[in-house]
Task: inverse folding
């Protein structure tokens, strides 16, 4: 089936309804068993506990009054405020069949009902409704490919095929596809079409924005099921950032500048996981050199950004260098996760004792207390089956200096240069990568 867009495809991609679960009957003959997500100390997030809603609510002063009960206390704190309505939502979730993350499903329904009670305008409902449908469909399309690395390619829709930039984008995408990476583009013409052409449709995703102007979807992916049509830029950007492990930007207009600065903002503030960001030019080009001058002369001189923030990007006019930068970022580093307010860096291999000592000396400025130390997988990671096979470093990161954290990642990738001042060509592992699908590789996990 070709991609029909988030709204049209919503019904087409709806999965088959699961069998209704067998439930014990309550006082009124209708039984409901809800799997309530529980964690330590009564918090949401742990195992699922079956509870007979009908029996719980009918107990005490009667079903009509629906008094709070031990079951109701186990629901998420975010509720409608109406015990009977909360119980009905729990029943509805259960009747949908086997459902994971029932606490979150419950809260999403509560949000919709709260909007209704707030008297939200129809326009507000349309935004929330369309955004949720677009995100659901995008998650559905990307889900089978979560274990594959992906690089997002940004650039102008107006770049013509005869422009050297077109060939640069095509060559970059082809090189990444040869290394078993997939590409994500905006599915339009120009640089986006070059990326799809280079990688091949089978290795490409298209996240298209519906606009009343500019050309239609690229011919290379028009009927592919990995094409997703978005109404809103913000949901489209979410798909780009969440699903990508690396980013390459070629010269473009306002849209490219918007994507560049928003991406850097997310990485600079820790709202997205660290990732390689390459600004790719053609030999003799001036676009990114001029951009860097502006950033240095207008932003850095005025102290509107930190001196290290430009370390978040790598400017080059060489495709091979761009590929080394992207692959090298994952030569030893794998991913991060916050556990008990500490940052856990997952690696393919631990540094030596001497290298670890140098890391502690060179990066003490971003460690609030203690040291950078090897660690075992935490109970939370084990419970989530979150890459427990990988080595780990643990530190109390200050959560402020993300560009310095990027330097730390460079150092664990290239131990001969722990201060991160140089980025030599890495020896890239041939082991396949697996990426956690809990919150997406670029949405920092917090326990």
Result:
């Amino acid at each position: 089936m070709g991609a029909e867009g988030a709204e049209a495809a919503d019904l087409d991609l709806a999965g088959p309804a699961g069998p209704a679960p067998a439930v014990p009957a309550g006082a009124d003959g209708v039984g409901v068993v809800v799997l309530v997500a529980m964690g330590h100390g009564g918090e949401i997030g742990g195992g699922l506990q079956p509870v007979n809603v009908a029996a719980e609510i009918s107990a005490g002063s009667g079903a009509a009054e629906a008094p709070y009960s031990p079951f109701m206390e186990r629901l998420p704190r975010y509720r409608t405020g109406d015990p009977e309505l909360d119980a009905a939502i729990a029943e509805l979730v259960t009747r949908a069949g086997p459902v994971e993350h029932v606490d979150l499903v419950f809260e999403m329904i509560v949000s919709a009902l709260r909007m209704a009670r707030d008297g939200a305008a129809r326009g507000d409902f349309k935004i929330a409704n369309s955004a949720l449908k677009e995100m659901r469909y995008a998650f559905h399309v990307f889900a089978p490919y979560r274990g594959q690395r992906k690089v997002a390619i940004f650039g102008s829709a107006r770049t013509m095929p005869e422009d050297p930039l077109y060939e640069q984008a095509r060559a970059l995408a082809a090189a990444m596809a040869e290394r078993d990476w997939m590409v994500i583009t905006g599915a339009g013409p120009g640089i986006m079409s070059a990326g799809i052409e280079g990688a091949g449709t089978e290795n490409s995703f298209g996240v298209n924005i519906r606009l009343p102007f500019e050309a239609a979807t690229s011919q290379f992916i028009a009927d592919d099921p990995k094409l997703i049509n978005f109404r809103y830029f913000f949901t489209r950007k979410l798909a780009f950032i969440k699903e990508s492990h690396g980013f390459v930007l070629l010269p473009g207009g306002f849209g490219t500048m918007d994507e560049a600065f928003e991406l850097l903002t997310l990485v600079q503030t820790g709202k997205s996981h660290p990732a390689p960001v390459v600004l790719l030019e053609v030999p003799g080009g001036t676009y990114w050199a001029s951009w860097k001058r502006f950033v240095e002369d207008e932003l850095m001189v005025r102290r509107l950004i930190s001196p290290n923030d430009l370390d978040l990007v790598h400017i080059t006019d060489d495709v091979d260098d761009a590929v080394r930068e992207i692959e090298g970022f994952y030569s030893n580093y794998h991913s991060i996760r916050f556990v008990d307010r500490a940052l856990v860096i997952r690696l393919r291999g631990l540094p030596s004792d001497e290298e670890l000592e140098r890391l502690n000396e060179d990066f003490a400025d971003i460690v609030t207390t203690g040291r950078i130390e090897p660690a075992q997988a935490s109970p939370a990671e084990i419970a989530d089956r979150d890459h427990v096979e990988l080595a780990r470093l643990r530190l109390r990161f200050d959560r402020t200096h993300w560009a310095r954290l990027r330097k730390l990642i460079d150092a664990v990738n290239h131990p001969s240069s722990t201060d991160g001042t140089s980025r030599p060509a890495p020896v890239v592992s041939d082991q396949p990568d697996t990426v956690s699908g809990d919150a997406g590789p670029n949405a920092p996990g917090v326990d």
Observations:
- The two ends are 39 Å apart (CA to CA).
- The longest helix spans residues 122-142.
- The chain is about 40% helix and 15% strand.
